[in-house]
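User: Could you write out the 3D structure of this protein bound to zinc ion? I've included everything you need below.
Assistant: Certainly. Input first, then the structure.
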Amino acid sequence: MHECHQVQKVVTEAQAMLKEKGIQDPKKANLVVGELLGFDEGCIRLYWEEMTQSTPLSKTALSIQFVPAMLECAACKIKFAKKGSNLLCPQCNKIGTLPPSGSSGKEFFINKIE
Ligand SMILES: [Zn+2]
């Protein structure tokens, strides 16, 4: 499982964000997770709980927002969200491909903490 290292990383990042923003007692944190990572929400929560125990984040409510990968259709030049295992372009029904940057659907970061 890769969740462990990734969660450790966002916990570190979240603590840096708290310092930066001068937040003492964070109530909510929102974690963005790309669907392509195949991470399990239960696992993420378990690691989060474990790793935030002795930090100011121990009582912070974590919300997890899964985001789909964006695919590109070479024929129509459009981008569309991957839905489950469906890779087909909504316009022409050809198989879409992941953009070459390769980061779409692999997001894993805290985008909001308050
Ligand atoms: Zn198309």
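The pocket of zinc ion is lined by residues 73, 75-76, 89, 91-92, 94 (CB under 6 Å).
User: Perfect, thank you.
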